[in-house]
Specification:
With 328 residues, the protein is an alpha+beta fold. It is built from seven helices and 13 strands. The strands form two sheets. Strands 1, 4, 5, 8, 9, 10, 12 and 13 form an eight-stranded mixed beta sheet that branches. The structure holds ligand MTE.
Length: 328
């Protein structure tokens, strides 16, 4: 009898993806070295950039469950099963805590108590919300969305939160507000990043949207997932979810929301505008220099971690909701 070893959910193979942080860090570092007149022969090996991850002692996430959660029937299910949370919660991108997908332990260092979100810029009612204010003021609901990373991995998760458009209405943008910038928590004593390389990143992590994108029905602020509060590695206590765009648009652990007249600079676009355009709509027909966008790899369900290859859908399958924003 042949025994087949089934990998545990935390033994997720990363060999199929090129670790984005390592690739970018190396390229930026090469540029810096060359700028400094140092040859590339001293470059470290891949995988050396995660020293920070081991520094943080692991501690368990503690979640609070949402009781009596309203499921929005318009977004109750999609054409594929919900990804098992034992997989999605251990395969993350959160570069403040390391450059690999296995940052869930390091991310437990994120301090989420007394969280506040400042809303400012070109609005009639600038204000700072406590997390509780947000959750009381805006009706909290559950929505099942497809999620697609530009690295071509994909999943389906039930987010809990409220539509961005409700917050927009509450603060009343002025007529000259055309864009919004979302800023993530940053404290270099805590968010140590992928080691040495992190010093070359344009922290804090920021992302941006046009106001019409932010007020689209789909654009969502998530405060929870799988019926409970967000685990830290997913961007507790509040993050952006914009399902028709690549995952990097969804800034985690948001502390500031600014309404602006001009398109803001953003984290990945500043690092490499060619690979991370501001719009970042999921599009199988738009080639990417590193990852083919024609297909995607769905995180597999069950005890065995498998990747299921599927064709990528234009706007991640949400064209009927957002196509008008892009003239289709
Ligand atoms: N937000 C912050 N602050 N830092 C990050 O590194 N990574 C982005 C996005 N939001 C990131 C972030 C990327 S590249 C992706 S694909 C998603 O978060 C991953 O979300 P998940 O780990 O919850 O699946």
């Amino acid at each position: 009898m042949t025994l087949i070893r089934i990998p545990k959910s935390w033994e997720i193979p990363e060999t199929e993806t090129t670790p984005e942080a390592i690739f970018l860090n190396r390229r930026r570092f090469i540029k810096t070295l060359i700028g400094a007149g140092i040859g590339a022969t001293i470059l470290p090996m891949d995988g050396c950039s995660n020293a920070s991850e081991s520094k943080t002692p692991p501690s368990a996430n503690s979640y609070s469950a949402y009781s009596g959660l309203a499921i929005n029937p318009a977004f109750a299910k999609v054409d594929r099963p919900i990804t098992d949370q034992s997989l999605s919660s251990k395969y993350n991108n959160f570069y403040e805590f390391g450059g690999s997908k296995s940052i869930w332990k390091a991310a437990q260092a994120l301090p989420t108590e007394n969280w506040q979100v400042e809303v400012s810029g070109l609005v009639e009612n600038p204000r700072t919300y406590d997390l509780d204010d947000l959750q009381k003021k805006f009706p909290i609901e559950e929505r099942v969305y497809r999620f697609r990373c530009v690295e071509a991995w994909a999943m389906v998760v039930p987010w809990v939160g409220f539509p961005m458009k409700l917050l927009v209405k509450d603060v009343e943008p002025k007529s000259n507000a055309k864009f919004v910038r979302l800023t993530s928590f940053y404290d270099p004593k805590i968010t140590t990043g992928p080691g040495f390389w992190s010093s070359m990143y344009p922290w804090p992590y920021t992302e941006g949207l046009r106001i019409e994108e932010m007020t689209n029905d789909l654009a969502f602020f998530a405060t929870g997932i799988y019926g409970h509060s967000l685990p830290k590695q997913h961007g507790a206590p509040i993050r952006a979810v914009i399902p028709w765009k690549y995952g990097f648009k969804g800034a985690k652990s948001i502390v500031k929301i600014e309404f602006l007249e001009k398109q803001p600079a953003t984290f990945w676009n500043t690092i490499d505008a060619h690979e991370y355009d501001f719009e970042a709509n999921v599009n199988p027909n738009k080639p990417h220099p590193r990852w083919s966008q024609a297909t995607e790899r769905m995180m597999g369900n069950g005890p065995s971690f498998t990747w299921e290859k599927r064709p990528t859908l234009l706007y991640n399958g949400y064209a009927e909701y957002v196509g008008h924003l892009y003239n289709i």
